[in-house]
Design a protein that fits this description.
carbohydrate metabolism; 307 residues; mainly beta; xylan degradation; Glyco_hydro_43; 5-stranded antiparallel β-sheet; Glycoside hydrolase; 43% strand; binds beta-L-arabinofuranose
Length: 307
């Protein structure tokens, strides 16, 4: 019996985000986490939900950045980037991701274009992970050109960026259809055709990570969103669907994951609407839970702290 109890307590403890508390940021509503491991720190980039409780849609004008060396204590930095830093954009600081290349930090963001109807992807650059960031191009990197067979006006959103072991960079993004293309070494130009990845019930929010020889493409599945994932031996596929990684995150229709390995542990970072009274789909909060792999590389379903 003692043995059984110790197993029970082990699972109880490891299934909760024991060291810290969820949500990890409570003084502001934060959404669409994208974490970057750099040197001995994690930089957590988020959107900022500013909708008051009578406004039933996203009100997002800026992105935020927090850093931590232990995944528990988060330091907020000066607001590093706003929609208005992109002269060609008019609204919607939606999902984003930052990556480092050759000492520069590139931040791929979703916004609404001021003149081309629909969503667009821009890229900002900085010498520091905490900014200040500046629009790298003075125009969008990806606009809604309505030339893809699957095109809808809001499919050019939720960029995720990945640099493969051979140095080739890739940009994945999409809503309803998942797209990818190569990026030139300068990280600010697309290189070659746009491909579509066929994934069951793909909604949005692709995230690419690699562990050992496996590539993982996780994404928001159905709506309200669960997070599902596929695995491949190559960044360009073929991708094999593996199932649900995370269930619907409480009262938030969206979920939006980021997956990192930091100081020997794996983390699943997402958002829910769990701040009491006003939290919900348009007032979301970033949470962190542990992620575990099975032998063979598949991922165990995440146990959210709120479960
Ligand atoms: O935060 C606005 C949008 O909601 C994001 O772009 C999606 O991924 C979803 O989280």
């Amino acid at each position: 019996y003692r043995h059984r109890w110790s197993i029970f307590f082990f699972y109880l403890l490891t299934s909760l985000y024991v060291q810290g508390q969820n949500p990890v940021i409570t003084h502001k509503y934060t959404a669409d986490p994208a974490a970057l491991v750099h040197n001995d720190s994690v930089y957590l980039y988020t959107g900022h939900d500013e909708a008051d409780k009578d406004f039933h849609f996203y009100d997002m004008k800026e992105w935020l950045v927090f850093s931590s060396s232990d995944m528990v204590n988060w330091k907020e930095h000066k607001v590093p980037l706003k929609v208005k830093d992109f002269s060609w954009a008019k609204a919607d600081a939606w999902a984003s991701q930052v990556i480092e290349r050759n000492g520069k930090f590139y931040w791929y963001v979703t916004v609404t274009h001021a003149t081309v109807p629909g969503k667009a992807i821009g890229v900002a650059v900085s010498d520091s992970p905490t900014g200040p960031f500046k629009d790298a191009l003075g125009k969008a990197l990806v606009t809604n050109d309505m030339t893809k067979a699957t095109d809808i006006s809001w499919d050019d959103l939720d960029p995720t960026v990945f640099i493969d072991d051979d140095g080739q960079a890739y940009l994945y993004w999409g809503n309803t259809a998942c797209y990818y293309t190569r990026l030139k070494e300068n990280m600010t130009e697309l290189d070659g055709p746009v491909h579509t990845v066929d994934l069951p019930n793909f909604t949005e929010a692709p995230w690419i990570h690699k562990r050992g020889d496996w590539y993982y493409l996780s994404y928001a599945y159905e709506f309200p969103e669960k997070i599902a994932y596929a695995m491949s031996r190559s960044i360009t596929g073929p991708w094999e669907y593996k199932g649900i990684l995370n269930e619907v995150a409480g009262n938030s229709n969206t979920n939006h994951q980021s997956i990192i390995h930091f100081k020997g542990k794996d983390y699943f970072i997402y958002h829910n609407g769990s701040i009491p009274t006003d939290g919900g789909s348009f007032r979301r909060s970033v949470c962190i839970d542990y992620l575990y792999y099975n032998e063979g590389g598949t991922m165990k379903r995440v146990i959210m702290t709120s479960e």
